[in-house]
UniProtKB/TrEMBL annotation:
<dbReference type="Pfam" id="PF03372">
    <property type="entry name" value="Exo_endo_phos"/>
</dbReference>
<feature type="signal peptide">
    <location>
        <begin position="1"/>
        <end position="27"/>
    </location>
</feature>
<dbReference type="InterPro" id="IPR005135">
    <property type="entry name" value="Endo/exonuclease/phosphatase"/>
</dbReference>
<keyword id="KW-0732">Signal</keyword>
<protein>
    <submittedName>
        <fullName>Endonuclease/exonuclease/phosphatase family protein</fullName>
    </submittedName>
</protein>
<keyword id="KW-0378">Hydrolase</keyword>
<dbReference type="GO" id="GO:0004527">
    <property type="term" value="F:exonuclease activity"/>
</dbReference>
<keyword id="KW-0269">Exonuclease</keyword>
<dbReference type="InterPro" id="IPR036691">
    <property type="entry name" value="Endo/exonu/phosph_ase_sf"/>
</dbReference>
<keyword id="KW-0540">Nuclease</keyword>
<keyword id="KW-0255">Endonuclease</keyword>
<feature type="domain" description="Endonuclease/exonuclease/phosphatase">
    <location>
        <begin position="44"/>
        <end position="400"/>
    </location>
</feature>
<dbReference type="GO" id="GO:0004519">
    <property type="term" value="F:endonuclease activity"/>
</dbReference>
């Protein structure tokens, strides 16, 4: 893992059209803004993100930085941020983009930053897509399908966390190597061509197959005098497979890991990358964040996967961040959006209009013991000058939107 500490500059007031930033004097002293943003800071070639961040003039990165500067989260998860072992990318994004005001927004500085390895693009040595060949050369056709998590090279589509508050490094837990087979009642995929159940993966493959397509991290963040566990992940999309639904089932159980981890009495089977067992201690405050790739009503999720969190007895799933831009986009784009069951104002991702349409894919979900003070989705309507930051396909930033929640202890 790679950790960085820097001197924190005073956060400025929140930008227009957004609620009051928790870091301002007028905000409640123990209110913190947690956010998740699938920022599409992934590249097709290893090392390209570091190259793009090495100068302050990459157009897409400038837009991503401006969105963050206008939303001004205190603790931020970025999904699809390519991992590099030296930690160059996470540092350069701060130094060359977040620390420089973009498009009239004020700079924002995060003193604490965290990144760690991702399962994406790590060769498994097995034929995980069962197409008759094992691909172990990064970037070669089919390599991503045989990797532990889809990726053209190790670390593609990784994760990064930026925080204004200290991260308790001694308490960090990562679950990158937890094996799917070790989850009791795992919904392992079945090969429909054979009579045996749950046999898409061979016994040898199950001995090494990791549940997390990227990783799951428990980052204890010190907010005032209390610690809030920031539980972050990025489950695989429940698509790009066949009748066995291997990705849909994996998505379900990746989401389930946090459901069990935060449910007293259900997390005893979970072990982290240091070999420590057990879930979160009862009563510990937490915030779950990430691109869960699962909508409550629409899309291709397996067995209502996200309801494992939304209906969880310890999680406050009652407040759903929304935006006017999402409602407008669904109406203008039509297609699959016209047949959706869910209210489009809660959508957080602008996907293809043919299928699956726009969905609520990104979540910030607090423990019930934390009080929700507000939240939203950065998706301005087209008449808003800031809509230039989200735009329409091909997007100037990402097909996902930044989602935030303000919580009080």
């Amino acid at each position: 893992m790679v950790i960085f500490r820097r001197v924190l500059s005073v956060a400025a007031a929140a930008a227009a059209l957004l609620p009051l930033a928790p870091g301002t004097a007028e905000a409640a002293s123990r209110t913190a803004r947690f956010a998740t943003f699938n920022a599409s800071l992934n590249r097709n070639v290893e090392g390209q993100l570091v190259s793009d961040l090495s100068t302050p003039d990459n157009t897409q990165v400038k837009v991503i930085a401006e969105i963050i500067q206008r939303a001004r989260p205190d603790v931020l998860l970025i999904n699809e941020f390519d991992y590099d072992a030296a930690g160059a990318a996470i540092r350069l994004f701060q130094d060359n983009y977040l620390s420089i005001g973009q498009g009239g927004a004020r700079p924002i500085t995060y003193r604490y930053r965290y990144t760690a390895p991702s399962n994406t693009g790590i060769a498994s040595g097995f034929d995980l897509n069962n197409n008759g060949s094992v691909v172990t050369t990064p970037g070669a056709p089919g390599y991503g399908d045989d990797a532990f998590g889809f990726g053209a090279f190790p670390g593609q589509f990784g994760m990064a966390v930026y925080s204004r508050y200290p991260i308790d490094l001694s308490g960090v837990r990562t679950f990158q190597k937890f094996l799917w087979k070790d989850m009791p009642g795992a919904v392992l995929p079945d090969d429909p061509a054979t009579p045996e159940p749950a046999d898409w993966y061979s016994p040898e493959e199950l001995q090494v197959f990791r549940l997390s397509s990227k990783s799951h991290w428990d980052l204890p963040v010190r907010v005032g005098h209390r610690t809030v566990h920031f539980l972050v992940s990025h489950p695989t999309p429940p698509t790009f497979d066949g009748a066995e639904d291997r990705n849909g089932r994996r998505n379900h159980d990746e989401i389930r890991l946090w459901a069990d981890y935060t449910h007293p009495g259900r997390g005893g089977y979970i072990y982290d990358d240091r070999g420590r067992r057990g879930g979160l201690r009862p009563g510990e405050p937490f915030v779950i964040a990430g691109d869960q790739n699962a909508d409550p009503h629409d899309g291709d999720s397996y067995q209502d996967a996200i309801h494992q969190l939304l209906d969880h007895p310890a999680i406050d799933g009652g407040f759903a961040p929304s935006s006017g831009g999402a409602t407008e986009a669904a109406a203008l784009q039509g297609g699959a959006n016209a047949t959706h069951k869910g209210d489009p104002k809660y959508d957080t991702a602008d996907f293809a209009d043919t299928a699956p349409g726009n969905l609520r894919a990104d979540y910030v979900l607090p423990a019930k013991r934390l009080r929700v003070a507000g939240g939203g989705v950065f998706w301005p309507v087209s008449s808003d000058p800031l809509s230039r930051l989200t735009g329409v396909f091909p997007f100037p930033s990402s097909d996902h939107r930044l989602v935030w929640l303000d919580v009080r202890q």
